[in-house]
Amino acid sequence: MLRPRITPCLLLHEGGLTKTIRFGEGKYVGDPLNAIRIFNEKEADEIIVADIDATPSGSEPNFDLIERMSNECRMPMCYAGGITRVDQIERIISLGVEKVAVGSSYIDNPLLIPEAIKRVGRQSIVGVVNVKKTGLLRKYTAMTHRGHKKIHLDLIDLIQELETQGVGEVLLQSIDNDGMMQGYDHHLIKLVKERIRVPLTVLGGAGNFLHIKSLFDEFGVVGAAAGSLFVYKGKYKAVLINYPSYQEKKGYGLLR
Q1: Per-residue pLDDT for 150 more than 70?
Q2: What's the mean pLDDT in 145-154?
Q3: For residue 89, with 0-12 CB atoms within 10 Å meaning exposed, 13-18 middle and 19 or more buried, which class applies?
Q4: Entry pTM
Q5: pLDDT exceeds 60 at position 55
Q6: Which of 82, 85, 28 is nearest to 50 (CA)?
Q7: CATH of region 5-251, choose from 3.10.25.10, 3.40.50.1820, 1.10.10.10, 3.20.20.70
Q8: What SS3 state is found at 5?
Q9: Which of 112, 157, 162, 254 measures 20 to 30 Å from 30, CA to CA?
């Protein structure tokens, strides 16, 4: 049975962790292995680790670092960044990673996801959709390469294409809300949730646990991912890895 998940999202940049605002320049927030150890202790539901350098630079995934993170991680882990081939996906799964998230490469190679599913199973493949409002009409537009390249396909058509290709989950991120900590884009989420049948995880905008509660209250079973919320503390954004305890989840009504 599916249940709501609360998922920290860690961004890798030059071997360290960074936190961006609207996909812009990031702020160094620590060491990825140390962060994973802390999330282990706090019993996070799962974790997403995304290498934000790999795709823009055309680099392969850092398999050595992925293996070290996977060996350290005691929760389900999803990796994203630099995926262009099925053999890369197979290798990452063989290192103990539960899910691999695929972004721009499914546009360039429509056979990537179906072939990967044959090798590692549908449950291990996540389709990433990064969305930004563009133009005078502020239309929701899917983007790749850290928000610099448009996907010339309507957002809903893209979502439905991912379902047709067979992804086990969709990760939907609002670029406009990234790092703003003012709440998720509920209009965007509603637009997609009404047209999707696979599990949906959303990312971009969470600044407190009430933002997550409102997400669960409105949309039911959905994954709530966040970056800033779990690496910053207080109004001055001191760097402090954190995650809600069972009692905090219960107090905020986050357990379903």
Answers
A1: yes
A2: 89
A3: buried
A4: 0.96
A5: yes
A6: 82
A7: 3.20.20.70
A8: strand
A9: 254
